[in-house]
Amino acid sequence: MTGDHGHHQVESGARLNGECEMRAEIGFNAGFRLVFCPCFCEAKRRDYSHKHKDKHKDKEHRHKDHKKDKEREKSKYTNSSNGKHKREKENGYVSHIKTEEDNGYGYSPMPEKPMKRDRDEDELEHKPKKIKVEKENKVKKRKQEEEFDYYDEDVKPKKKSKGKKDDSAGGGKKKAKKEPEEKWKWWEEERCTDGSKWRFLEHKGPVFAPPYERLPENVRFYYDGKVMKLSEQAEEVATFFAKMLDHEYTTKDIFRKNFFKDWRKEMTSEEKSKISDLNKCNFTEMSEFFKAQSEARKQMSKEEKQKNKEENERLVEEYGFCLMDNHKERIGNFRIEPPGLFRGRGDHPKMGMLKRRIRPEDIIINCSKDSKHPKPPPGTKWKEVRHDNKVTWLASWTENIQGSIKYIMLNPSSRIKGEKDWQKYETARRLKKCVEKIRAQYREDWKSKEMRIRQRAVALYFIDKLALRAGNEKEEGESADTVGCCSLRVEHINLHPEMDGQEFVVELDFLGKDSIRYYNKIPVEKRVFKNLQLFLENKQLEDDVFDRLNTSILNKHLQELMDGLTAKVFRTYNASITLQQQLDQLTNPEDNLPAKILSYNRANRAVAILCNHQRAPPKTFEKSMQNLQAKIDAKKKQISAAKKELKSAKADAKAMHDEKSRKSVETKKKAVQRLSEQLMKLEVQATDREENKQIALGTSKLNYLDPRISVACRYESEHRRVCAISVTRIGFTLVIIERHCIQMRREALETRRPCRGKVLVVHSGIWRALPHVQQLCKKWGIPIEKIYNKTQREKFAWAIDMADNDYQF
DNA sequence: AGGCACACTTAGAACTTCATAA
DNA sequence: TTATGAAGTTCTAAGTGTGCCT
């Protein structure tokens, strides 16, 4: 009922890989290439201009640019990590990929050292000249091509943006005068190349959790049935437990044990000697008090709520922003985590431990030397103030449960996060270009004489096919027992030479990140299966499946196949490509808006299933389901009543033979029909809700799907001309519509709803196009607001601004 | 080649606000 | 108007991956 169904669904329709192979087959690469230039900022420009017909010119241009940048970089940074780019060519294959990939430019693994920004600070607010010129060219070209042109509005100063909490640029971190300023388009600027993340950073430091307030006298704690007044410290920790009394956590042994141990540490020696058994503790008065308190908060008058809101806004205005390189940027988490009881996920050995209160003395501040340093609260000191512009965080502290470091960082809408996000998708797109070769290689590696290579190849196959996470090793006993691909153990895998009529079925069952269960039965190729059998030979349940492999070995190998390639890029790539393919498949331009949105969500769901993004069914789920079921039952009753009436009306009509009774039969028939339709709708709604019961769409939307794919859905574009239709030997069809390549799987065409009778028909192996095929590429005209909410639009502002209607991932 | 520190992304749960049906 | 559920937002845990040291 869980992943099983879902994964099969995905397997059968959602994921159609193998585009590169097909492209090669029909010479697609030769005819059109979506080349993104090596360095990141170049890629951006390509993004704007990838329609250019004059590829050669463009290439030259890029090349020159790049050379220039490289020289610049060299001269400035003698110790630049150029050496890193020179990778060993272990075999011809690798180098082949690279050559093809890099196109001779050597895709600088540039995340860390993007293009040099050698402009003055005060120039920052302006669009770089270079880019401006290029843009004008582009505008011209576009005009020539009579393409949709959004530079028109882009080039001239834009209409005032509607957002009130605009970036106030130019050092205007003073009180925000209500002068709506233009949103800063960082994506139109060049990026820094020297590995520094900023040049200037000023902020006010974090906001600390409010100090503990003692409970009123009438809220008492009982031990062994007797009232007991607790010391302030012990009381505070007790309230943490009391607040969680309704939570399942407090029934768990480990939680209680850990809590009690840590609680006792906070007690006075007197308390310690008295309180020796958690079971004798009675927190109910405390619990009731907090419940009443939150109830009272809900019941607050409008004015009070408003006051609170304003107070909060003031705090956000003061602490929620920083000044980074002349731009006011939102901070993601400017509040220090308050003390409480640790809530680990799954079977966490440390659940219930006391998360201690963070004080200024624990905080390391990071900011510019020449900025106004944040002031610690009166009478306190920071642990340290440093000026490290190689990192993005503003403040950090070490947490006491795992000893890990926590950071205060910027909001996803910030330049620093956005650039990284954009770059992530560009890396995934580069993978797209060489994924088929990588696949060919790992298939080849299944036959290797060396065990470690075969393990690597099979693991990579899983990561690619199933979008598994890499699976770093974890310290035992420090956290819940969860695994990813490289850390899979024998107990997580079952091999079935035959199952449900399929050969070579691998059954995976393990807890992944956040202790979310992954369950899937996958038919695999014989060679994979045989390899797995070999890997499992003579092993205990608790042994690693891939004993000669870990993530660092795997990633090193991937790095050799493509610059910047790591295991997680496959997840991004497969998620995004799946969305795009699903959208192409589900597209039905005649649908109305809700239907289109439903289709979009379905495409999104396919990705969520692929990535195994699950959620606990909402608390209210059962209830709301029951409500719906009640409606359905009521409807059913109505129907049976209506049917009865119809029956008797029919009998009447038979007996009476008159016009009136005949008419009555008709009316009753209609009523039954109408009710049945209503019932159907309700049932569909119920199915839909049920289907989404434990699937979470948000994570993939936010982290895996190239937003430009979704953005492209907003345009209603003209029909496209079909250029070619081709069948590949592996049963895919390619439909080439102008420069779009749309691939389909045979069975998908035959059975998938959007295709049925619409797009293609099959006649004894010959594919024929119907006129409707032209519609395939018509984009949907979905308003972006229907896909992304406000926060998401802020995060993806770069994509919304730059992607045009025929964006291809 | 393995361990560790660190930085940063990805993740679902919990909480808050908004929209809509009763 | 109020109650309810959905949508939006916040929170922080739990991953990935790099680079340094041994």
From TrEMBL:
InterPro entries: DNA_brk_join_enz, DNA_topo_DNA_db_N_dom1, DNA_topo_DNA_db_N_dom2, TopoI, TopoI_C_dom, TopoI_cat_a-hlx-sub_euk, TopoI_cat_a/b-sub_euk, TopoI_cat_euk. The keyword Zinc does not apply. It comes from the Eukaryota. SMART domains: TOPEUc. It holds the Pfam family Topoisom_I. The active site is at residue 704. Belongs to the type IB topoisomerase family. Residues 291-318 form a coiled coil. Residues 47-67 have a biased composition (Basic residues). It is found in: Nucleus. It is an enzyme of class 5 (isomerase). GO terms for molecular function: DNA binding; DNA topoisomerase type I (single strand cut, ATP-independent) activity. Residues 341-716 form the DNA topoisomerase I eukaryotic-type domain. PROSITE patterns: TOPO_IB_1 (PS00176), TOPO_IB_2 (PS52038). GO terms for cellular component: chromosome; nucleolus. The keyword Nucleus applies. Keywords: Biological rhythms, Coiled coil, DNA-binding, Isomerase, Nucleus, Topoisomerase. GO terms for biological process: chromosome segregation; DNA replication; DNA topological change; rhythmic process. Its EC number is 5.6.2.1. This is DNA topoisomerase I. It catalyses: ATP-independent breakage of single-stranded DNA, followed by passage and rejoining. Releases the supercoiling and torsional tension of DNA introduced during the DNA replication and transcription by transiently cleaving and rejoining one strand of the DNA duplex. Introduces a single-strand break via transesterification at the specific target site 5'-[CT]CCTTp site in duplex DNA. The scissile phosphodiester is attacked by the catalytic tyrosine of the enzyme, resulting in the formation of a DNA-(3'-phosphotyrosyl)-enzyme intermediate and the expulsion of a 5'-OH DNA strand. The free DNA strand then undergoes passage around the unbroken strand thus removing DNA supercoils.
